[in-house]
Amino acid sequence: MNTPFKLRPYQQEAVDATLSHFRQSDESAVIVLPTGAGKSLVIAELARLARRKIVVLTHVKELVEQNHAKYESYGLTAGIFSAGLKRKERQHQVTFASVQSVSANLDQFRDEYSLVIIDECHRVSGEGTSQYQRIIELLREKNASLKVLGLTATPYRLAMGWIYRYHYRGFVRGSDEERDKPFKHCIYELPLSYMINQGYLTRPDLVNAAVAQYDFSALPRDRFGEYAEKDVNQLLGKHQRVTRAIIEQVIELAAERQGVMVFAATVDHAREITGYLPEDQTALITGATDLKDRDLLIQRFKQRQLKYLVNVSVLTTGFDAPHVDFIAILRPTQSVSLYQQIVGRGLRLGEGKQDCLVIDYAGNHVNLNHPEVGEPKPDPDSEPVQVFCPGCGFANIFWGKTDAEGRVIEHYGRRCQGLLEPADGDRPAGANGRAQQCDYRFRFKECPHCGGENDIAARNCGQCHNAIIDPDDQLRDALRLKDAMVIRCAGVTLGVDGSKLRITYHGEDGEELSESFDFGKPAQRTVFNKLFGRRIANGQAPKVFRRADEVSGMQALLPAPDFVIARKQKRYWQVQERIFDYRGHYRKANEA
Questions:
Q1: What is the DSSP letter of 371?
Q2: Residue 22 phi, psi dihedral angles, 5° rounding
Q3: Digit-coded pLDDT (tens) for 68-87
Q4: Overall pTM > 0.90
Q5: Which residues contact 222 (CB under 8 A, 6 or more apart)?
Q6: What angle do CA 157, 356, 8 make, to 5 degrees?
Q7: What string of H, E and C letters represents the secondary structure of 196-232?
Q8: What torsion, rounded to 10 degrees, do the Cα atoms 364, 365, 371, 377 define?
Q9: Nearest to 38, CA basis, from 368, 351, 322
């Protein structure tokens, strides 16, 4: 038997974390390792240690073949079940298979398996009818204790969200509405920066484009933060000179480079780009490229018969060409994970390779060392910021903005992501003894029935379960009334007269509404603190004010509602509703 590969320290840690988790639990788990970290070696070691039948699934035959080869390099034998590789072997203890082939031959997988390993597991959806889920459910019929392990470099996708719920470092992924995840736990994660700093990956040379860039910021985005293809094509069609100038620079900079990958925004865009590159040195691959042609083109590129490989969303995972040392990004993305995957195509170590040139021509403004936030980027100026929870102290990562000194001046977080362990250790924290998510909310919708704080998108109260009035309904009803005024609030000013605090709400068109709170009266003081004190500094520093002059000293941190609704009372307007953290169909102040 050949001597097994010596695992790198982090690979051994990932293996140990897997063994430890599955000794204690049958709940599904995920390992997150950056592109080029050697997931196939981790898979091979886990398969080598297995004592019962296991199956390793992935979505492309190249990865089936690659993972199988790593396992057999231990001197062990395993089967391959893949129509694309023209092999359907299932008699071995370990089977490397394509998910499509197993799904099409479920009747042949009636044995009892102890473990399913899924490579590139971000492709697994939570839907029970998906190919992956159908396979898992079938194998669970034979073994209720079936273990399911996924490996990926990108545990977050814009159209799906996080693929797991609980992280081993003590926090929760996703919102209250996203509890059903394909996996339960992330049991090990390694940042891209660690791989680069330790010399396991090539250092990227991140350069700002020296020619004109595309500006996608004016295009409308869907709820996942992505752009419609027709809108992108329309914009790019108006800037063909920009594309030509970009490719001219790419060709110039590529003179000293070995292999160049160009990531295009759309198929039409990719064809245009290909037209500007040297025909005899360029290949174009899209989702519609015939599989045989695709294999041939990739092989020619790996053998350096071709220098430029242009693609549209098809070579971000499962592609390994270590000689790539120039990545040109001409497509927009709001996903930090996807951006890291794209750059990762050029970070594998290669002979004679000093660095990998990375140029972003799409103005994505993504920092490779930043963590994935888990939400679409609210606007181009947003960056990941650390926000401490006033309730439990957990350091959350949200989109936000900072001042020149790096202080957080705004953030878009909604609920603390921290997990709280039982206080005494003598009773479980929640169902199955699992730690519970901290219930502190930076932004919230208050239930009018019980006063409970709920997510700003909640339709029913999580505590009393009564329906919560929809802000759009409130605004719509008020706009229909002749004796009601609705203003889009652009800011507030304060005035103090003894124990009384006067708040003036300023509309974007110059309208004003005012109301007063008498801090000498406990009831009015309580109302003010529930409305404003709880929301000071975006919920980062909630405060209970006892005097009116205390409030005036913190005016800069006082939140302004998005809308204010008032009703006519004889000769003056009386404020009735203040809508904070609005998300709906109506435009807020100063929005386009």
A1: P
A2: -75, -15
A3: 999 998 889 999 999 989 99
A4: no
A5: 228
A6: 70
A7: HHCCCCCCEEEEECCCCCCCCCCCCECCCCCECHHHH
A8: -60
A9: 322
